[in-house]
Structure formats: C-alpha cells, structure tokens
Specification:
The protein has 629 residues and is α+β, with helices and mostly antiparallel strands. The chain has helices at 3-25, 29-37, 61-70, 72-75, 87-107, 152-158, 162-173, 185-201, 251-254, 267-279; strands at residues 53-58, 114-122, 128-135, 141-150, 208-217, 222-230, 237-243, 283-290, 300-308, 312-321, 325-334, 342-350, 354-363, 370-383, 386-400, 404-418, 422-440, 449-467, 473-493, 496-508, 540-541, 544-545, 550-563, 566-581, 590-601, 604-613, 618-625. The radius of gyration is 37 Å and the shape is globular.
Amino acid sequence: MTAARRLRTALAALTAISALVVAGCAHLPFAADKAEAQPPGAAASGVPTRAEYRLEIQAPGALRKLLTDYLDLARFQNAPATEGVNDAELERLRRAAPAQARALLETAGYFNAEVTVERIGTDAAGLRLLRMVVDPGPVATVTAFSLDATGALQTAAAAGNAAAQHELDTLRARWPLRAGDAFRESAWVQAKTGTLVRLRADGYAAASWRSTRARVDAVDNRVTLEMVIDSGPLYRLGAIHIDGLSRYDESAVRRLANFAPGDPYTEKTLLDFQERLQKVGLFEGASVELDAAPASAGAAPVLVHVKEQPLHQTTVGLGYSGNTGARATVEFTQRRLFGSRWIAHNKLALGPEQKTWQGDLTSYPLDGLYRNLVSGSTSHLRTNGQLLRDWNARIGRTQDTPRIERLYFGELAHARVDSDVLTSQADAASYNYQWVYRDLDSVLLPTRGLTASAQAALGYARGTLAAAGAPTLDARGPFARAYSRLTWYRPLGDAWYGTARLEAGEVFAHSAIGIPDTLLFRAGGDDSVRGYGYRTLGPVVDGVVTSGRTLLTASLEVARPISPAYPAYWWAAFVDAGNAADRWIDFKPALGYGVGLRWRSPVGPLRVDLAYGQQVHAVRVHLSVGIAY
C-alpha cells in the first residue's frame, strides 16, 4: 500500500468515527437542549429571523391600560427571547389585533370603536414599531332595567306579605346600574353578584339567578337589563349544634344566641352571634354558619365551631403610651374560678409615671345577654408635678347587644392628689349607668358611621382640700355626674376621610363638696386635645392645674392614603380644641393642631401625631393605638 493510499484510508476512517461521535452526542441532554434552543426558522448561518418590536397604543388612559394588559399584540412584545415572535407570527397578531381590541372595548361599554394597527418602521433602538390608534366612540348607557323574582319571595309578595314586598322593593331600589349609568361588563357582573349576596343574607340562602340578559343596541349605544332572580325558600333558624367544647358548658354558647328556633334567618343574626362568642373571653376562635340544605329550610341547623381558650393564661408585655410613657405588664386569667362559671382577670402595669392594678370577676353569659360583674382597681399616677393615688370597687351587670353595650354598677371610689401647694382627697358612693352605641363599617378600622357613649351617676361624696397657709376645707353632700362622647366617621371622596369628635361632661354639686378626682375632668393628651400633655389642661389654683367640674373638647381630622400602592399607610391633618373648668363661665378652650401618620394594622390603627399647643407654644409628639369609644 502506497503512502497516498494509506493517507486516504486514514482520512476515511477518521470521517466515519467523527460521524458516529456526532450522532451519539445528539442524544445527550445538553445537546438536546441546544437543539431545542435554536429558534424556529434559523438560517443555516445561525442568524435567527426573530422579530423584535414595540407597540404604541393611542387611546384614553383607562382603555389604554385595558388593551396593554390583555391584548395579545401588546403582551407578546415583552416575550423572552426563547418565546420570540417571528415575522409571520407578528403579522398574524397585527391583523387579529383590531378585532380583539374591539372585543375588549365592548367589555368597557364601547360597542362602536374604530381600531387600526400599522407598521411604521423602526424606532431609535432599531425595534420594529407598530402603532394602534383607537377611537372608542360614545360609551353605551343603561336606558332601563327590570328585576323580577320567582320562588317564595314572589309568592309571598303577591299574597300581600309586607316583609316580602319590602325585600323586593329594596332589591330594586339598591340595584347599582341605574338609567343613565355607563354600561361596563365589570359593573354588570358586580351588580348581579351584590344583589344575589344581599338576598341570600336576608334569609333566602339558596337564591340564584334564573336569567340575566343585557340587550345591547349598538347603533344607538343603549343597553336594557332584564333579570329574574329565583329566591328559593325563606330559611328559618333551627337547633344550634356545637362542636369544640370540652372545658366550658354549652350554656355559655347558647345564652349568647339572641334568636330562637323558628325565627327568620339573616346573615347579620349569625354574624352578631359569632362576634359575641369571640368577645366572651372563653374562645380563641369561633365561627357560626347555616346548614343551607333546601330540605331543611324550615328549621335550618345553626352550626357553631369553637376553639377553646386554656383555663389559665399568663401574659407578659412591654408597652408605651404617649400619655404615661413606658410600662411593663403582667396579666393572669382564670376562666373557671374554683370550678365555677366565673372568669377572673388580673392586670398589673408598672411604669416610671404610672403603676396600676385592675382585677375583675365576670360571670359566664346569662339570659338576655347579661353578665354579672365584680371589679376593683388602684393606681398611682405622676403627671404635671402631681401625684394621684386612687382606688375603686364596683359591683354590677353588663349587657352586650349587637349595637349597644350597657353597664349598671354601684361604686365606692377614693382619690387623693398631692402637689407642692395643694392636697385634696375625697370619697364617694354612687350608682352608675354607662351606654355605648356603635354603627360602623368596621369596629377596628372605621371609615364610615358613628359611635356614641354616655355616662350618668348619682351619689354622695365627702372631700377635703388643704392649701399651704389656709384652713382645711371639709364638706359632704350629694352629687350627679354626666358625660358623653360622640365620634363621626365619613368618607369625603377621592380617597379622603374625615373624623369629627365632640366630648362634654359636668359634675353637679355644691361648690364646697369635695368630689374624687377620678370623677372630675381634665383635658389634654392623645385622645383629648393634642399638643398638650396628659391631664395638663384644667382650672389653675395657686399655679397648680387641678381637675374641673365641666369639660368640653372637640376635634376635626382629615386623612388619606399616602399612596395607592400602600393603602394601609395614611397621613392626616387635625385641629383639636377644649379644656376643663370649674364653671362654664370660666371655660377658655386651648387650641392644638398638627399632622400625623397612620398605620391601619390588622389589630387597629397606630397613630403618630406631631401637634403644636398654641397655649404653651410648644410641639409635642403623641402616640396611640386603637380607637377610643
């Protein structure tokens, strides 16, 4: 074999081996990945024909966002390289875009929109540029609607049942899409859902739409709505079934239900029952629901699920108040004191400015939503150069209904106030009534509604007053006390919210009779007149602020979210005014105003306020958590 022939044979063998190796590698994972990564339609030279492009949409703002979010031609311009759109696909998307855009615009109520899409060259970055021009035309409006019913609701209304006729009239009156309103698919769906939820909540738990139709006159941009709702049966409440109880008696649950078997079902009835279970202090969680099987509509079982609190619980905490500073707290709760149906709760709070102990015994729920109450407290408070020491003991009853809380109690009270120039102390025995009313969209984070509280007391008091260089005054006699507080919440439009507060009180007694300081009034602090220290506003005697027999404070505040992206964080501006005095003729309001930040947390609002007290010419920071009622 010649050298040339040997060379040709070696080259042929090498070529065959290379072909085998390449064929084998094609089956390896990394090789497969590389093959799949090759874009469709790639030329032999390895240069892809992927078309990169940018779409401009000329349309009114809200419609532009709708098209940008849902139009295929808009969405695919941001596709990753591995999902790139080639020239043929881009042309298909361009041709399909006008029809798809018109379909999207119809959901917003525009049935005569004109849409064009053109390729207009390339932009500065070399991307192929397309432009969509949208003329939406007039929006379609609702010209009329009809809302009829079938089932038990219609049968009862036709028979003259006033409650059923009122329910049907209310559904029609509250139908959101009225004549003249713009028709939008989202509003149409929301209106139907809200109406169905409302009827189910009002006793017809199996209600459903029998038919709904929106008749569109695209030529005249008019829409007529026709709806028929099937109410199903009117549900009535049946027996209560409870699960989750092991430590506490069923009576603690059943006595919180303010309904009886046979009463008409409403969602609010069960939600109020659930709220009372959550507040009673025995359960970590509670839920109440209706067994809505149509076969049992005449006596639908009420299903109660509870998760019990432990019999004994100790809680240790640290806190801070803008009124009294830092504090450490220890709380102990015994939920079956000596095996009885009483809950015992003790709380000790220690801080540099204030030291308090509070203890109470509360019975399990009784008939009529009442509970018996025995309580006591003692406190040492240093503020504004004075030391207040007080204690009280109470015995009474409390009642918690869906909107109203009532408290009746007899009280023994003692208070002593020491300052550099004055010492006063007094004792009182009184009978008291307290009332709280709430009508709010949210108890924790209200934005609409009002709260009102009132207190009244009749009693007998004895007190002494000693001033440096003056004889001690000692007098006794009857007294009466009245106090009220009203808070109003109101949305103001465009994400603005307003809060107004009015507070007033008076003690009626002969001027010589000493009244315990805790039954008198002072102003100033986080929930009073901001810009002034806690209890620093009141009548001044020998240069010392004392407690007065009259009180009047008021507050106006506006607030709104800082940004739509962070709806839980608000800023606020406010004006407060008020004071306490011994007589109305001596009343001189102190003014405070400023700005603040709000965090609407799941457990209530956290407020930080920077306030200027006009009377003291100073700026003060106030920190508070929760809502004062």
